[in-house]
Design goal:
single chain, 2 domains, 15-stranded antiparallel β-sheet, 7 helices, globular
């Protein structure tokens, strides 16, 4: 039996432009014999159904799940550490359409398999290895099996189920389909790690022919997983639901910094990005991997394949200020208050921040011109330091007057808010001409005339949208516990992705 994991997935059919995907993230801290031994994250994304979907899959909306596990465990002197990524496309009821697994053990051995369900033949065709897809293995089943991420679907989407039932489940690591018994227990209380007690519903599940290998999953009243228990070496491996910062831990957060020092290679340099109005890029990863990027005001994303995206970057005023207000249709709507409010990280009402905002913004009232002045002011009054994904409140940056792109962006967003302009930070990749690549970077965005306009205090200029690939944005509310967590989504690209410039349509 495998430990539960979750991470974001993509599908082979492009979503409709107006389709809004709902993303759900869950983080777990893994403990064994009272010691923290790793973390796990599960991302679930709404997915359109591919043209090859089976009738069973079509009965329910499809989901992409991505489960990432990092486990550092020694037992009786043996290193049992693993890192694994499992990506699936499945129905809300767990019926499995396709999957991809990459698992690395402590001895360096790698398991890499992927497969899709063939409804006509009643089988999964399993391709082993990254390159060798010529000898697929057939795994037949009289029913289409369910996903191995059992805690994500056991409760089911508004389904009536008996107290005990069984289902065929596929486990990718062993390429085996196993009959699993599932039993719902009466409601009970569960004591959490902070010694609080909550009401939960517990489900036990085990292989029909091996009832001694019993796992348990606990759901709160909202049917969210709060704890998973799985047997391991006669003991119990526990997965506690938590926030991302706690799950990753300080040691892992620090080690992640090193991974952001590399970029995504570009096969040839961008030509004339200053005068172009549109740039089309193809972003790809390995054959059995999946990626996605968000669409935004200057970034349109089309999912051409599960492992490939077509990204169209635009600027509003060719040959001029790409974000100039007179090129943007004026709108009266405003973003949520959270983008203007004072927070722990963007403490825009703090005296040092307010002072910089007043001096840097000057007496101008036009929000675009004000943001340009604030960008130049922050850029000229901070000293660039070595890159780190750590995060400091804007007031600390205002006092220290130094930092890397995270500090520059935090302070810029804070002074914008101090001057009444809604602002947030964005994380993604910025174009570097020598060598041609996209490197991890953070910048600020201001809400002006109905659009989120990018500004980059690290470089001291407004951002040319043709030179940015945005992966995520954040209001930096108090719930954000670490700057590193903002950069974690970039790990899906670093060392795995390539970017190719496409010809104009």
């Amino acid at each position: 039996m495998q430990a539960p994991k979750i991470v974001p997935q993509r599908i082979g059919t492009p979503p409709e432009p107006q389709n809004i995907r709902k993303v759900q993230d869950a983080w777990f801290l893994i403990e064994f014999e009272g010691e923290t031994v790793g973390y796990e994250t599960l991302t679930t994304v709404d997915a359109a159904v591919s043209e090859h979907a089976t009738s069973t899959a079509e009965a329910m909306p499809m989901l992409r799940r991505s489960r990432e596990t990092s486990l550092k465990l020694k037992r009786f002197g043996n290193d049992m550490s693993i890192s694994a990524n499992l990506e699936t496309i499945e129905s809300m009821d767990g019926v499995l359409q396709s999957w991809s697994l990459r698992r690395t053990s402590a001895d360096g051995s790698v398991v890499h398999r992927s497969a899709s369900w063939n409804s006509e033949r009643g089988e999964f065709l399993i391709a082993a290895g990254i390159r060798d897809l010529s000898k697929p293995e057939s795994l037949q089943s009289h029913v289409q099996p369910r996903s191995p991420i059992l805690p994500a679907w056991i409760v089911g989407p508004n389904l009536e189920r008996p107290p005990q039932w069984a289902s065929a489940v596929l486990f990718p690591e062993t390429s085996a389909i196993v009959d699993i018994e599932i039993r719902r227990l009466p409601p009970q209380s569960l004591r959490l790690k902070d010694n609080s007690t909550i009401a939960v519903t517990r489900y036990d599940y085990w292989p029909t022919n091996q009832p001694e290998f019993r796992s348990s999953v606990y759901y709160d009243v909202s049917q969210e997983v709060v704890l998973v228990e799985q047997p391991l070496l006669g003991r119990t491996l526990r997965f506690y639901r938590t926030d991302a910062g706690t799950a990753l831990g300080e040691e892992n957060l620090q080690s992640l910094d090193l991974q952001f020092l590399t970029g995504i290679p570009l096969r040839r340099p961008l030509l004339n990005p200053e005068t172009s109005s549109v740039l089309r890029l193809k972003v790809s990863v390995g054959e059995s991997e999946q990626i996605s990027l968000p669409s935004s005001d200057f970034q349109a994303v089309e999912q051409t394949l599960a492992n490939s995206l077509t990204v169209t970057l635009t600027r509003s005023a060719p040959g001029g200020d790409e974000s100039a207000p007179n090129s943007i249709p004026r709108k009266t709507n405003r973003p949520e208050r959270r983008f203007i409010e004072n927070s722990y990280w963007l403490d825009s009402s703090q005296d040092d921040v307010r002072r910089m905002a007043l001096i840097g913004g000057g007496a101008v009232t036009d929000p675009y011109e004000k943001c340009r002045r604030l960008t130049r002011y922050v850029s000229s009054h901070l000293r660039l330091s070595a890159f780190s994904t750590s995060l400091r409140p804007a007031s600390e940056v205002a006092r220290s007057r130094q930092g890397d792109c995270t500090e520059y962006s935090v302070l810029l967003a804070a002074v914008m808010r101090s001057q009444g302009v809604p602002a947030r930070v964005a994380v993604g990749f910025a174009y570097i001409p020598d060598p041609a690549s996209f490197a991890p970077h953070m910048w600020a965005e201001a809400w002006i005339d109905g659009k989120w306009i990018p500004f980059d205090a690290t470089l001291g200029v407004e951002v040319n949208p043709l030179t940015r690939l945005k992966v995520v944005d954040s209001d930096l509310a108090d719930k954000n516990t670490s700057g590193t967590l903002l950069f974690v989504p970039l790990l899906k690209f670093l060392g795995r992705a390539t970017v190719e410039i496409l010809p104009d349509p």
